[in-house]
Amino acid sequence: MKLPTGCSRIMSAEQDGETILLNLETGEYFGCNQAGSTIWRLASEGVGVAEIGRTLKENSGAPVERAESDVQAYIEKLTFEGLL
Fold this sequence. Notes:
The chain contains three helices and three strands, in the order βββααα. By secondary structure, the protein is of the alpha+beta class. A three-stranded antiparallel beta sheet has the order 1-2-3.
């Protein structure tokens, strides 16, 4: 498990491209699929929505507008869950 930069209350473990996040303050676990893992990792490193969207577009071929919209929604969910 590792702590992302600047986020000492969250621990993460990656396996087979998926990530499990643990909020140390609440004890809550959160599972991320491969795309979610990429979003979480890049967002926790301070990468912006547009750049994360471009990364997902390159990996999946989805239209960049859709990728950015999906990234924004996922970041909002991670923030709500206290993971960002």
